[in-house]
Fold:
Amino acid sequence: MEIVIETQNLTKIYKPLDFWKKETQTGIKNINLTVYKGEVFGLLGLNGAGKTTLMKTILGLLQPTSGTLKIFGDSINNIKIRQRIGYMPELPYFPKYLKAYEIMEYFADIFDIENKKERILKTLEIVGLKGSEYKRIKSFSKGMQSRLGMAQALINDPDILFLDEPMSGLDPLGYKEMRDVLINLNKHGKTIFFNSHILSEVEKICDRVAVMHRGELKDVKKVKQIMQKYKSMEDYFIHNVKEKK
Structure:
């Protein structure tokens, strides 16, 4: 199988912002991780476990302190590699007075996309926003705003999607809508790497998951193996993050 993400001993240590403080804080420590083409890979962990730090380091938004990282076998600093990546931050913000089409047009211009209008309309349709192209963001529900965030991550037709808590703030209907979008994208060949606290959705969507705790990778397993060994994804998660007395 083709390797999409490969890290070896990837470490990020934050230096203190205060000049007088000498203590450093470890964001992630010695992360060894491999993600394969076509996978839906879920990253689990408590708040502050290092999930977002790991994702931002992989994306090149944070500079690693040590270790190595490859995306599609190359450096994240290679512009051709970056063009194959889509990223949706947690709780994406869009100006309320703009229309969905205008938001998408902005991102399409960044990537200098040909046949811009056709691509924008197709992408909005993929995420279930057909018919809402010219509505202002202020009229969008949280679920619709999340799907618009997904659309901007898809505008360049990436090979891999990085999603930071894509279901954050959604209601049960929003979960279902986002789940359907992710499953459909994966069926069409997209590799998906995302963080989430919604364990029930992770169980339904992912091929494999990893658990992070205190900046370290505690375990990586196939969802099928987890469900054979544990009563639920929650039991598996708690087993890996519960502090030993």
